[in-house]
Amino acid sequence: MDMEMPSQDDPRRVAVRSWLAEHPTPTGRELAEAGYVAPHWPRPWGLDADPIHQLIIDEELRRAKVRRPDNQIGIGWAGPTLVHAGTQEQKDRYLFPLLAAEEIWCQLFSEPDAGSDLASLGTRAVRDGDEWIVNGSKIWNSGAQESQFGILIARTDPDVAKHQGISYFICPMDTPGVEVRPVREMTGVAIFNEVFFTDVRLPADALVGEVNRGWGLAKVTLGNERVSLSGGGALWGMGPDAKDLLALVRERGGCADPTMRQELAALYIESEILRLIRLRTVSAAIAGAQPGPEASIRKLLADEHGQRIMGAAKALAGTGGMLTDTGPLGGPADMWHFGYLFARALTIGGGTTQVQRNILAERVLGLPHDADPLEGRAWSESRGAGAGA
């Protein structure tokens, strides 16, 4: 890996510092229009920044204690898809408000009856003149109750192969017929939601890309989602990480239990492996290479790592861990109790651990596919046929 950062007098660094001197407390809109929210995006929404330029901007914003707008699904998933396939009118209308977090977005993909097979979705969109009429339901829609827009996939042709009859839409969440029901989790809060569509009428220009070609755009969105979910803190970029837990243990005098010390050492090693994998990914991008399998592997490892961090924190709390207001080694709970409960979702969201392992086995290791039960082949037969092929 070659990660040497440019000097303090690098012109790109100086430009960011000069802008921050003129905008010491920038608004979300000012950051967006300067290209500092998503600098890797093309102009005018970004700066066409290469990875080193992005890291410079990140460093300078942190130094100035300036936070980017918070609109994870909008900036991380919806925005890149609109940049990729949206019309010029859609880009002009949605991208700057999205980057500035003036309009919050949610994702309307998963369905109660589709399971991990997203392409088996049943929500229908039927063309009626200049409108689309949508009926169906979605589940696990993070932040839908607070969102102004959602990215929606629906079946527009039920008579073709399931991946070929899906279209991609922008759905205003205040459209008549859209009903959002928060799902209260065991954390005590309602991050996720159910969303129901009853004769929801979307205008023709709500379609992104071509009719029946939405599956390709969904894959663009999901690709950005899995990258987003693999960074930052232990809870999909939120909350504390392994180093925070280890710092807390040191602060409170260490840990005398040898088994727990071994677990803490393992968490440190895992966190370093994940950090190095991320640096490999960044270094490859700097060298002009496409992301390799390490990006997918990092997402898989990070989810299980997050669960182990929160499990160790709960164990360190001892009997106090049965309370909601006690953290590791008798300290305050802060995010630890919430994190322990929320961490159960890590290996489900963004693609279940089982699905992720199948993808890596088949596409990275080249192992044969599992049998398609609809074709009536036994697992062993399919594995034998695949191995011999």
Overview of this structure, please?
The strands form 2 sheets. The protein has a 4-stranded mixed sheet with strand order 1-4-5-8. Strands 2-3-7-6 form a 4-stranded antiparallel sheet, with no helix packed on it. The two termini are about 35 Å apart. It is α+β, with helices and mostly antiparallel strands. It has helices at about 10-20, 30-35, 50-65, 70-85, 90-100, 215-230, 240-250, 260-285, 295-315, 335-340, 355-365, 380-389, and strands spanning about 105-110, 125-130, 130-140, 150-155, 165-170, 180-185, 190-205, 205-210. Helix 4 runs antiparallel to helix 6 (about 215-230) and helix 9 (about 295-315) packs across helix 10 (about 335-340). Strand 6 and strand 7 (about 190-205) form a beta hairpin. It is globular and about 70 Å long.
Short overview:
The protein has helices at 11-22, 28-34, 51-63, 72-85, 88-99, 214-228, 242-251, 258-286, 293-316, 336-342, 353-364, 379-388; strands at 105-108, 124-128, 131-139, 149-155, 166-172, 178-183, 192-203, 207-208. The protein is α+β, with helices and mostly antiparallel strands. Strand 2 (124-128) and strand 3 (131-139) form a beta hairpin.
Please report which band the strand proportion falls in: under 5%, 5-15%, 15-25%, 25-35%, 35-45% or over 45%: 5-15%
- C-alpha-based Rg, rounded: 23 Å
Strand order of the largest sheet: 1-4-5-8
| Structural class by sheet pairing and helices | alpha+beta
pLDDT < 50 stretches: 226-230, 373-389
Kindly state the mean pLDDT as a whole number?
Answer: 86
Global outline = globular
| Oligomeric state, counting identical vs distinct chains | single chain
**End-to-end CA span:** 37 Å
Portion of residues within helices: 40-55%
Counted by DSSP, the helix tally is 12
Largest sheet: 4 strands, mixed
